[in-house]
Amino acid sequence: MLFYCSQYFFLIIYYFIYIPLFFVLLLT
Prior knowledge:
Keywords: Membrane, Transmembrane, Transmembrane helix. The chain crosses the membrane at residues 6-27. The protein is mainly alpha-helical and 28 residues long. It has one domain. 93% of the residues lie in helices and 0% in strands. It is built from one helix and no strands. It has one helix spanning 2-27. The longest helix has 26 residues, at 2-27. The chain is rod-shaped and about 40 Å long. It starts with a helix and ends with a helix. The relative contact order is 0.12.
């Protein structure tokens, strides 16, 4: 249960980093 919650949290952090990075690549 704790591992699943941690994995989900990691996924959210990954998306929060990856989405702005993707937008920066699109704009440049």
